[in-house]
Amino acid sequence: MLEPLKGLFRGSRGGAQGGGPLSPSSRGRPLQGRGETVFSIRTSRGLEEFFTQICDTSGLTILDLGGATQKNVSFITDLGHRLYSEDFLRILNETFGVDDTVDQSNPGRIEYFLKQTLDYPEGHFDGVLVWDVLEYLNPVLLNAVVERLHKIVRPKAYMLAFFQADDKTDSAPVYTFRIEQVNSLEVLQQGMRRPAQLFNNRSLEKLFGRFESVKFFLTRERLREVIIKV
């Protein structure tokens, strides 16, 4: 397995990633640190909706596709849930190259990629933090990933995904999302990248057509936050 961070985190507060919260005077203005730019700490209605749906139950199993960050590990496990982490974009780059330099429609590579990122039993997860990773997949790979997600989450589970709201952009910021509170996120930019495809509400409803429902929220950063109920 290529992913060294793959595994189960149970509330450990160690590790090199993450760090303590920003001071109140730091909020809402750009900062530099560890090669990243903090754009904002902002409210997230999509995140709030995600946690609202799981707040009455402990011991759930959550998947984070943004890679392991100490803030997310600590936040989820402090709520009494189990967290699995996959560095989805890093494995995407290793498998297909950056900006689709290798064909994302190749069946063998698709199967290899799914094995590296979403190799879990059927109905294993109660929730998935997808973040913004899906818009970098071409239609063939995207459909395979969505199909696998549908398989590994339990009925009535919830997923949170982000998509660019500007459907005419040539490039978009790649973000890391760190959970501050149940309704707020620390948003850090990891450079720019060309989306493989862009979506509006109708195309997202079609993409998640096998799921029970899709709900949208629009942010000031021109991100479309999407809650998908299985």
Detail the topology: elements first, then pairings:
Blueprint (H helix, E strand, L loop, with lengths): L7 E2 L21 E3 L2 E8 L1 H10 L6 E4 L5 H9 L3 E4 L2 H9 L10 H11 L7 E7 L7 H14 E12 L7 E10 L2 E10 L7 H7 L5 E6 L4 E7 L1
Parallel strand pairs: 4-5, 4-6, 6-7
Antiparallel strand pairs: 1-5, 2-3, 3-9, 7-11, 8-9, 10-11
Shape, principal axes of CA atoms:
globular
Secondary structural class: alpha/beta
Q: From N to C, what is the helix and strand string?
A: EEEHEHEHHEHEEEHEE
CATH topology of the domain at 46-171 and 197-229: the name is Rossmann fold
Largest sheet, if any? 7 strands, mixed
- How far is the N terminus from the C terminus? 28 Å
Average residue pLDDT: 82
CATH class of the domain at 46-171 and 197-229: Alpha Beta
- Total number of strands: 11
Q: Any idea what the radius of gyration is?
A: 17 Å
Strand order of the largest sheet: 1-5-4-6-7-11-10
Helix content: 25-40%
Unreliable sequence segments: 1-35
Contiguous helical run count: 6
Q: What fraction of residues sit in β-strands? A: 25-35%
